[in-house]
């Protein structure tokens, strides 16, 4: 047994029954001096007398025997329960085999009824050539079964339509297990009551999730973890704070706290964060991520003073979004965005104009829903520019000129902007080429595909370089953009952890463009001083020379060739064995996320639970319900990540209403409700904000359903004194990542020349960039 394994398992009670002999790699029984060649688990079998892998101890005391026997029984029960849960959602080691086997058995046993069409090939033997698996004739029983199935399906459909459930509910991994167990129960099944759902069933689900949580705890101990926290306000102005834990195993929701009746100052935030750190274990926490609000900054500084080993870092996605907001306030950007919004609002606010636009753009949309508001603005601007020729052709066409809209003030103004404004399109191009590199960095740090800690330093530098390149190296153009970026990056986002991640990333460290400047090495050494005790620090510092000079395993041919093939964490796990202290430190840094946006993506989970009055759940039960639902969805996302699908991300993308609906001050903005559906359906139950009173002017009420690509979005137009008319907009939401792929800036961080470089924007003056 290795020393590391021995050290990690010393908390097990069985060590009090062990004799350790110096120089031996085995355990010895305290009672009979029998040598155990396995681990502590085998020794428990020896003491419990189970005859499992080792001869029973004949001198063990009765108390020790019972203690070991009970521990083994508990371990076996937990393992079986965990495997059953994993197999239920398709994660178990034998789930695929059992699924195929059960389908085969079901096909053989069901005859011509339910067995046909399963799609699974039936294993065939030597006697099968003398028989046929096809039924000779259709029996009355099979016909009756088909009719019975139709009746069952109709009742299921009626329930879903009645409750407004999205059609893709049936794609949920828990749908088929539920239907199977109900069918297997047979006639007379009594469904759970509301009381059962809110009591023992909910409690059992919490217990099952606690078993899954053990896998996450192991990862927290091995790789370290990040605590993510963010606040939000629901439609009733109630404030909540979410706390999640992120590691390479995935994101885990810890709890949500209602802070509506408290002042959310730095002292309160520090108290909550410190409690979560204590709950997880300070030795497992590497960093705490929050947004950059002053109360969180204060809490983060106080937390670092009390907890000497961890870091507080601001959310990178939030900081980059603030960069985009600052850039959007420059005169040229603000003016261009305002004009572009007017164009898009006019087109999307009138169905005839929208239909004509789609004819010319070949059904390509202008609206670009994105992760944040300002990313939405600039990506929509990019989409508008891509359809430049189509929009010019539309407003120049005979069909437009002969329409009533061509004579109205709105139409004349929009046409003038698109066709005759000499600055509009050059300025649109300038706004795109000075912001798209930042949007791609936002996408990278917000993604859960890979930890971004080892890349953000290089991504920010590359984004600035490419903004300068897109501006043809003219300092008067890119200088104001750089200053806006630096104003956020230097005091807020640039942290020692980012520098350490950059240095320890083998993909970048051995590259020609690696910047081995003082601030990078200073950040690395600050992290080592804070995260390691003196002896580990001393050893890691010596081992750093081997990494710098690519000596030992670091310099082997396979290590060199693997630098760009493996993730940084995987590379260190494979080739850092000869430098254990440095390896552990590197893995804990490179496994970190940079963004707390995981807290934000599932707000609809809380919105739908907190706003349902009819359940009247007390606070403790409400927390349990949120805990189950949030972690269930996080686990589903982890499963689907293998297919590069992020359902929570898609569901929580917000569409920016300011690009579609008019703002009417001082009235509040019209609510835009979202619901993932495979087909568009108006769901008034999803409203979170009350509809303002009617005015004498037109008001557009949007019910946006942003589903998977190819489905439709529907909105309703209401006018005063008249009846509301429902109109369909065949919007096809565009995934922001697609266009980044087309431009070649998806993963590499390198940006090619984009097609806006040919635009003449030399007329930009100092006042435009102020």
Automatic annotation (TrEMBL):
Subcellular location per the Swiss-Prot or TrEMBL entry: Nucleus
InterPro entries listed in its UniProt record: DUF659, HATC_C_dom, RNaseH-like_sf, Znf_BED, Znf_C2H2_type
Keyword rRNA-binding annotated: no
A GO CC annotation given for this chain: nucleus
Gene Ontology terms, MF aspect: DNA binding; protein dimerization activity; zinc ion binding
Compositionally skewed regions (Acidic residues) per UniProt: 756-770
Cross-referenced Pfam families: Dimer_Tnp_hAT, DUF659, zf-BED
PROSITE patterns: ZF_BED, ZINC_FINGER_C2H2_1
Main location per the UniProt record: nucleus
Compositionally biased intervals (Polar residues): 130-143
Positions of region (Disordered): 106-147, 718-770
Domain BED-type: 9-64
Keywords from the named record: DNA-binding, Metal-binding, Nucleus, Zinc, Zinc-finger
Listed SUPFAM superfamilies: Ribonuclease H-like
PANTHER family for the chain: OS05G0256350 PROTEIN (PTHR32166:SF74), OSJNBA0013A04.12 PROTEIN (PTHR32166)
Protein name stated in the entry: BED-type domain-containing protein
Species this chain originates from: Vitis vinifera (Grape)
Lineage: Eukaryota, Viridiplantae, Streptophyta, Embryophyta, Tracheophyta
